[in-house]
Amino acid sequence: MTRFTIASFNVKNLIGPEREYYRFQSYTPEEYAWKADWMADQLLTLNADIVGFQEIFEEMPLRQVIAEADRRGSEANEASIPDPSKRYHRKAIFQKLAYGSYAEAELAFAPNINDSGEPGKRRPGLAVLSRFGFVGEPEVIQDLAQPLDIPMACLGEEEEAGFYTLRRLSRPVLKVRVPVGNQIVTVFNCHLKSKLGEYITPQGATHAPETVLTAYDAAGRALGSLRAALRRMGEAWVLRRAVLDELEQGRPVLVLGDFNDGEHAVSSEIISGETPFRNYAWMLRHDAQHPGDRYSDEEDAQIREAIDRLRLRSAEKMFLKKSLRDVVYTTAFGGVHESIDQIYMSRHFDPTWEGALGEMLYFSVFNDHLTDGSHPEAPYNKLASDHGQIMAHMELRG
Q1: Is the pTM value of this prediction over 0.90?
Q2: Inter-CA distances, 395 with 92, 230, 349, Å
Q3: Residue 262's closest CA among 321, 339, 367, 151?
Q4: Share of the chain above pLDDT 70, in %
Q5: Which domains does the chain have, with CATH numbers?
Q6: What average pLDDT does the segment 147-169 reach?
């Protein structure tokens, strides 16, 4: 048996001090020191074998955080892990307490190709840290060699219903292949378009009209939300297509990151794929010639297998089903607590499938630092991440 952990960590705008990332937003040296300190502690607490990071503007600050986590981990091990001369050094608890260094780990960073480097107009990228290293070169998906054209279905007597075209993702998707035990697991790290409205600045103007809140344009802002949703769902399909390429080759897959949507949102369901019905034998056939023309029992089994083998499972949902708990959330805004950071897995990790290679043993959520300021007595620090971190504890057989 090989056990490993995999985590998703949206760090909230990691960049060096005195570097303006968004308009008028930067860290003083003291603020940066506090943020880096908090991140190192969080990484030390996670102690995950594989970590997918989101909102990384620059690689060097992340490497510095990892190095600091290692320094603290080494100190913690020296204080709390007995050396072999102690008769009790084999106690299982010390395996749990030990911090695993990232000194030999590999880090893949995917900068955002939309990032021009211009102060105040920066765009964040992604990274994956792996104690197991990588097989082959990491792959970045952002500029689409073939634009995604989504034709709309015609209604009534329309000849042309229009289409939506996506040529580039708002942020990269990072794909790595990780050797774990006797298996190679494909890991995708993503950060889909947020729900923030996407507005268009007219030529010659300094800003989009919808951003002028003193001249509030409700319809225009709703259209901005529509654009954001279209982009997020288009990006979800691009990720889904890349996932299918791996699944169709029989490869185990883990997808993690900031989906900017809950598990039941359309964009999330695009990524995970359909959930098969329990029985298709009751359903009218696609080519039915009479009311009783239904799928056969053999076709029912074929359909369910075709859907299930390409479907991803939510780690959070599998954990809640196992534990009967409902307290998982990774963001808090306006008094609403929800999960928009996800870890999805192929059925290779679903113990109910007879061909499973392993399973998830536990699911951890690190969200004690979260507050949206809705409660006056709640602590708040804008330098910590506005996302909780999630981690799946996995086991591979053989």
Answers
A1: yes
A2: 17, 37, 8
A3: 339
A4: 90
A5: 2-138+173-195+223-273+315-396 (3.60.10.10), 274-309 (no CATH)
A6: 88
